[in-house]
Structures are given as structure tokens and as C-alpha cells.
Amino acid sequence: MWRSSSPKALSSLFRRVPRGLNGVARVGRRQVYILPTRSGLSFAAVLLVMLLGSLNFQNNLGLLFTFFLASVGLVAMHHTWFNLLGISIRVRGGPPVFAGGEASFDVVIGSDGQRTRFDIRVPARRVSQQSIAVPGGDQRTIRVGLPAARRGLQALDELTVETRYPLHLFRAWCYAETDATTLVYPKPAEQAPEPDRAAGDNQRCALQGRLGTDDYLGPRAYRNGDSPRQIDWKAFARERGLVVKQFGGEEGEDVWIDWSKVTAPDAEARISLLTRQLLDAGEARARFGLRLPGIEEGLGRGRAHLQRCLARLALYDHAQANDPLDRAS
Amino acid sequence: MPKRTTPSIERPERTQVLWLTLLLLAAYVPLAPHLAWQISAFVALLFALRIAAIRWPALIPGAWGLVVLTLIGVANALSTYEGWSGQSAGAALFVSMLVLKLMELRRKEDLRLATTLIGFLAVVQFLFDQSPWLAVYLGAVAVAGLALLVDLNGGLGDTPGRAAMGIAVRVSVQAIPLTLVLFLLFPRLSAPLWHLGTDPRKGTTGISDTLEPGAISELVLNGELAFRVRFETPPPDANQLYWRGPVLWQTDGRRWSAGAEAMAAGPAGALQDASRPIRYELTLEPTDQRWLFALDRPVSVPEGAFLTPDHRLLARHPISTPRRYRMLSALRYRTALPDRAGREAGLQIPDNVTHRMRRLAEDWRSQADNDWDLVELGLRFFNREAFHYTLLAPRLGPNPADEFLFETRRGFCEHYASSFAILMRLAGIPSRVVLGYLGGEPNPVGGYHMVWQSDAHAWVEVLIEDRGWVRVDPTAAVDPSRVDNGSASRMLGSGASVRFTLEQNDAIARLARNLRLLADSLDAAWQDWVLGFSMEDQLSLLKWLRLGGAREYGLAALLLVAFSLTLSIVLLVSLRDRPRVDPLEAEYARLCRRLARVGLERRPNEGPWNYGSRVRAQRPDLAPTVDRFLRLYVPARYGRGCDPEIHRALMSLVRGFRPGVDKGARPDC
Fold first, then answer.
1. What was the ipTM of the complex prediction?
2. Which residues numbered 154-213 in B keep a CB inside 8 Å of some CB on A?
3. Before A166, cis peptide (omega within 30)?
4. Would you please indicate which residues of B are annotated as catalytic (active-site) residues?
5. What is the extent of the structural domain holding B94?
6. Which tens digits make up the pLDDT trace of B322-348?
7. Could you tell me the residue range of the domain that residue A303 belongs to?
């Protein structure tokens, strides 16, 4: 009941688990919060009735039993707290998604000591809750989903890790800082006009592009993101360096996907159309390139190239007309 | 109300529902004999429905069905017990509603609540039965309930069932020290705050406050314990152990009762010449009556009780739980003489006295010089004539005293006491009948005496002018050859009774008797240390700790201190997470410590091999051991993984490694 309704102003008062230099947040003593759950409160109420009844009837056995359950509750409370203490939390961004989908993050929970940490949960709005046990000296991953509304880098600033181990009488939780991001591609438009062809006639492309034969096109130098299957390992063994064998059907079928060639009411709609064009081009196995104001991604083919182009679009800042990736490098 | 969907993690599993059902059944079974059969019938119906519904979920009744079932349950409990009041009625209602909850287990939250209420069910049962077996049994049920709670919480990895059981046991064990501290030091109430109404108790046996022919001979067949006595001074002979209970003044010739006069509260006449008092502690089983038994004449009065003019001890409330009290009693004494009213009450004569009874009394009166002579004549009469002492007394008609004295002459103590008292009154000597117990079986294992219901007895007290009230036991006057031992040992077993000589030659019987003594000692310890533990014991514990002056505040302070201390110890010992240390690395660290002691500290930047070669260079004498260690350690640690064989070899190497300081060349570091 305290989980969802804590307002932002209040939640800013809670201490966060800081991230270490290696990106791992380790839960310390002063960052673990604990409160009774609804079951815990009803357990306490039943115990109170038992206590009063036993005291009144001077029933020592009833008292003994009540004290036993009360002690169990108290020990359990400490178990709950200690269950969270000292775990390590590392968050990784998941694979890129399109806007409107769900950005996923991998939360890696590690238990460094000897004890198994039971019932660790990372409550998230969308994903059905999952409860895991982390054996001592090991780590386990929980995947958390977050609705990805806009393109760009979706950050998971903060994350709650909680436990109700062992008896569900108390809930202990902590807030962990993260800097994990997941790349969100722009939402593709439903339909987009055909992009311009750089060379060759459109007719031939339309005919053969669908056929998509796997003819050997020739070698090319390796680029990051190329599939290991395409690497010419024999050439590598002859110490000629990493060379990629290019396959593809159509020669001279180069498509430029160009910012200036698309008409749209605003920049986001334009990006959305461009995304659709990129996806179509990728599906048609054409060679394609991307031109944005101030940025050009050369002609290429394959998933890695498509992803690179999509990333350009995802991070494209129209107002500044420059590319954060470039700025970063 | 819109129907909310239950998230899958909150939906209970089938095995969990089954587990809860079985637990509840297990917790109910010991309670069943204490409740009426109608309650058990209702509960059994619901259990059957629940178990069938695990297979066919459609059997679970809907909202209206639940309402109907609830009404049936309430009506059933109310009509069976004719109202709300009383512990049985309350327990019946609670159980009916709790089992009804089984029909409504949509979310895990419901299961949690039901599991918690099983604990309440256990406490309710202790109102009916407090045996150690029940406590152990319900304790096991409680631990299983905790395991269910753990399992309901989930997140237990691959073997949830086993993990849940292990966690529940661990938590329970850790809770035990805290439980003991709380039990020992938590303040108790000295008087109840409220009453749940009177419970018509069936089957509480013991002496009642009236006496009719056959009452005691029926009671002695009951094998239950009446009370235990621990003598602090040397115990008197068994035939002197008269435990006084109710005193009966009034009779209609068949039935003796207390009489209004005796109930009138007043100062108890002080005993005169009471010498050499006997000191003892008595633990009385619950009787639901107010009287406290005491050896002959009580000299002291325990707390919460008072002494009546006829020297009965009465508690202020009925004894519904075992009651322990310390007493001083006198066996030799002289009571004060009663006033006129008391004397007249002791001379009241029933209407149905016959002519031959009157003649017998007048005959004694004419022969006797004084009152005591007359009493002795009466006793001699019982001894001389063919009176038989037997458990199998013939049924008597409307005038039992006459019939017994002149026709049947076979009877048990109530026949003797009743007719003797009437005869004394006819002869002009005030007399009254006293009910209680005679004797006590010593328990050498536990160091106390056990007094059983089979020791129930009735005797007479007569008023002698210069001696006060004097005890006379007409039963003891019966000639021993006319005591019917055979039927007694057949009906009483081998219990030791002062009045009968029971055979105990059989080895098996002796063994059985010893086992019985041992079992009773355990039971007595349970009574003393668990059931009978009271505020007084807490205060004496406090006194023993030299904190007696602080009383309740001291107790509260001690509770706080002891509780936090115990909790910290439990946490420190069992909850701290120790860092995971590779066993091989631990051995290496120990080797490094040994070497550091002789000045060969490992530098932070040194790996095992570099360190080893430095040691070899500086201390060639240590080289063989260090080399052997490293040749085993390095491949195992960084290569194949830990092999227990290697670990053991490393351990023995390090253990035998005691480098001495090299006097020659000081290391240069």
C-alpha cells in the first residue's frame, strides 16, 4: 500500500543506494527501509487478541504460544531486513525498441556472501512481478520493462528492489540509482513514400528486390556489427585481416533516405516517415544510406547498418541539427 | 463492485490450498472432542467440500452460497450451545467461521489470514486441554503453518517446498530463546479482566459439595489426579494424611449438604495448642469449585483465599486452572468451642430416623461415662458387628442410614460417615461430615505425593467438650478381615490406597507403576514450570537476582534488557552474512600470515609465484614447504577448481609450517 502512492516530493527524502565506480550499487545499512505489510498488521492484530485472551484466562500455554509467534514475527522482521542488506545491484539497458513499445532493462542482483537471498523482487508497472532467489556467491537477472513513449535514450534513473522474505509480514525495500539506458528508435509511420533511387531504374529494383538472391558480391573490410558468419575466416587465416563476404541480390540498387526529400508537418513526423523508409529498405535488402541535416550515414546493407541508421534517427536532435553520437565521439 | 483481476503472483497454487486445508484439519482434530458433534459435522462437511473442490473447482459456492453457509454455521453453533456465552460456544463459532474461510481463497492474502488464524485456534484449544502432548503437536502444526507462509511468499528458487520447510524451522529455532525470555518475564495479570460467561463443564470430576450413598464409591473409580503435594517438612504417616475439603452440616437422612450456617462468613476460631506444623506446597488440579484442600487443619491462609469458621479454605474464585499454594497445617491441635448456633447446627436430626436407631444411640448413652466414651462405643460397634468395607455396596432405599446399620452392613466410607454422624447426633453429640481425601501415593521420582480421586474419603468430626472438634473415622474401625480387597484391586488397579491392601507382586505391575510414577513426575514438572508459572514465581526470580524491591517495574526493566540482549545474540549468531571465502584462498592467506610473522610480508603487487621466489631467495630454509604449497595451490586455485583432496593437503602443510625467525640475515624489507 505504500508502494505505488508515494508522491515524488516524499520519495525524494529517501536515501538512494549510490552506484559505485564500477556501476554496481551495494545496499548499505542506512538505505534499507522496512514497514509491515497488510498480512503483518493482521498477524499483529491476531497476536494481540491471543495475548489478551491468554492473559485474561491466565493460560500460560496460550501465552507461551503467543510469545512464540511474536518472537517468530520479530525474527522474521530482521530476516527481511538482512535479506536486502549487502546485495549488489547492477542494471543494464536492454536491446533497442521502437517508441510505443516497452524498453527493457536487466537488473542483475548479486549475493556476495554465503547466504541465499530469497524473494527478491523489482516491482515494475508493466511486467508481471517476478520473485527470484539469488544463491550465495551468485547472481540472477530480473528483466524490467518500462513503456517507451519517445525516441531517444530511455533512462531508468531509479529502481526499487524489495523483499518480503520470509513470512510476508514485512516489506523491506531500497531505492537504487542507475544510469542504465535503452535506446528507443522512433516510431515508424504506417506508410511512407518510396525513397529516391541513387542509380539504376526503379522497375528492375522492384522486380528483383523481392527476389533477394544470395549472390556473392565481393569482399569488404570488416566493420563493427558485422555478423561473424559473414567474415571470411579463410582470408583471416591467411593473415589478410578481417574481411567480410558480401552477399546480396541487386547491383546498383542504392537508396538514399533523405531528410530533405520527405514532406511532413513537423520534425517528429518526418523522422517517423524516415524510419519507415529505413525499415522498408532493410526489408528489401537494398543498399541504403541516410542523409540528415549535418549527418550522413553512407550506403550499406544488413542488420548492423540498419541499426546504425535507426540509432542516428533515434538520437537525432533536429533543433541543433547535429548528432549526439558525433558530439560524443 | 467491479471485479478486480488477481495478478498471477497473488493467485494461490493448488498445493498451497491443499496444504492449508490439511493444516486446519490437523489443528481442528484435537479440539473436536471438546465440542458438540453438530459442530464437527458442519466442519467435516466444509472440509469435504474443500477437498473435493481442489479436484472440481466448480464446487466452490458463490457469494450467495457463502452467505447461506455462514448463516447455517452461525445457527448451528447458536442452537447447539443455546447462546453465545461460554468458552465452548465461542470456540464453536470461531471454528465454524474459520473453516468457512476455506471456501473463499481467491488470493494469497486470504491464505495468509487463514494460516494466522490457525495460531488463534491453537490458543483457543489450550483453554480446553493443556497437556504437553497437545502443546508439542500444535507447535509442530504452527511450524508447518510458518512453512506455508514462507511458501506463499515465494521466491524460493528451484526446490520451494524444501526451502520453505528449512526456513520455517530455522526461524522457529531462532525464536525459541526470545520466547523463553518473554514467557519468563512478561508481566501476568493476577485476576481476569473479563469472563466469557460460565461454561457448563461436563466431566470435571472431583468431590462435590453434597454426599449421597454411592457418591464417593463412584468417584474413586475415576483414575484422575486430584492434587500433588510436596512436603517441606518430613511427611506424616499415610494414615494421618486427611485432606479436608467441604464440611457438611445438614442432612435429610439420605443426602448431606453444607447448610446455610456453615457458609456464613466469620472469623475462623483460632487453633489452640497447634504444635509442630507441617509445611508443604500443594498443586490442585482444576475442580471448578472454590474450596482448597489442606492437610487437616490449616494454620496459614494462601493468597486469594480465606478460612471459614469450620476451618475450610475457600478461594475467592472457582479453581479453573491448576492452582499452586503453600500451606502450613497442624495435625495436633484443639479447636475453639462453637457458640450455641454452631452447636445446634451440629445436632440437627433428619425426620426419617427410625426407632431402632434411636434405641441404639440411647443404649450407648446409658453405657458411656462421657462423650468420648460414647464415640468409642460407636466405633467398637462398627468393629464388632459384621460390617464390611467394600466398593460394591448394595443399593439402599429411602432410609439408607437405617438400612445400612441394621440390614445390609456393606458399604463404603460415605455409608459409615453418614450413619455414624446421625447416631452421634441422636446421642446428643454435635457432629458433622467432612469430605476430602485420605492418604497419598509417594512419588520417589519426583519427590512428592500424589493424591488421586480414588483417595476420596468421607469422615466425621464430633464436638467433645474439652477438646473441641475431633476427627473420627468410622471406616477405620472396620475389622481389616472384612475389608474387600479383591474387588478394590479389580476396580482400582494397583494404585496405592491406605484403605485397601492391594496386590502388587507382579513384576509387570511394578514396572507399570514405575512408569506411571515417571510420567506423573514429568507431568508435575510441566504443571510447575509451564502451566503454574505465575507472577509470584516471577517476583521470586527477581528477588533471586537481588532486584526484589523494584517489583513490577524491575520486571519490566529486566524484560527489556534481557529481550534486547537475547535478540542481539540471536542476530549476531545466526543472521550475519559471512563473506564467501574460497577455502584455498583462506589457506594461502594463512601461509602469508605465517611468513609475515618472520618478516616476509607479501607485498600487494606480488602474485604467489613472485612472492614464492622472494621467500626462496631470502630464506632458503623455508623454500621446500613454500614450493610444495605453491605447486599445489596455484593450479588448483587458478585452474581446475577446488578439489577437497588438495584442500586437505594444503591445510596439513600450513598447519605444520612454523617458520622461526632467521637470526642470520635480517630481511631487507
1. 0.77
2. 154-157, 163, 167-168, 171-172, 174-176, 178-179, 182-183, 186, 188-189, 192-194
3. yes
4. 413, 457, 473
5. 8-154
6. 788 888 888 888 887 777 777 888 888
7. 196-213+248-328
